[in-house]
Design goal:
Blueprint: H1 2-26, H2 91-95, E1 99-100, E2 103-104, E3 113-118, E4 124-126
Antiparallel strand pairs: 1-2, 3-4
């Protein structure tokens, strides 16, 4: 009886050892998804440029929104229009209306206007909680995705 148990234990131990040796010999190292060795230093991504750097020159393309309710992305550079201060908001020069110099431009949403504050001419004023445009609306290049995917934005 003892010999049978000893024989099974030795057999099981040898089978485990052989399976471990075969398993270790047949596996290769991890394959990184980024295509470079894991220990290789990261390279900075190439600089992306806006399709239209200056609003009003050419046609800037609206960028698809990622989710419902996402604030529209800004398809042009904004350095020229910053900083936004309490006294000055250069975004409003173009986006207070839906047309500028014969070109369609995205107009500020009605939700951004105050129901109680009025400008000197009696028209609704921008709600101060919505005055800092770059808090929600960020510049974004229409760049090619870094990895291939099937994602489709929800709206334009």
């Amino acid at each position: 009886m003892k010999n049978a148990i000893l024989g099974k234990t030795v057999g099981l131990t040898l089978a485990t050892l052989i399976a471990s040796l075969i398993g270790c010999a047949s596996t290769s190292g991890p394959t990184p998804m980024r295509g470079a060795d894991v220990s290789a230093p990261d390279r900075a991504p190439e600089v992306k440029f806006y399709a239209d750097k200056i609003p009003g020159v050419g046609q800037a393309h609206l960028i698809d929104r990622t989710f419902v309710g996402q604030p529209p992305l800004v398809p042009h550079t904004v350095e020229k229009y910053l900083p936004i201060t309490v006294e000055e908001n250069a975004c409003l020069e173009c986006h207070i209306t839906d047309e500028l110099r014969g070109q369609k431009v995205p107009k500020i949403g009605q939700s951004h206007f105050s129901k109680t504050r009025k400008k000197k001419d009696g028209s609704p004023a921008i709600e101060m909680s919505r005055f800092q445009c770059d808090t929600c609306h960020v510049p974004q290049v229409d760049a090619k995705p870094l990895v291939e995917n099937k994602f489709v934005g929800v709206t334009k």
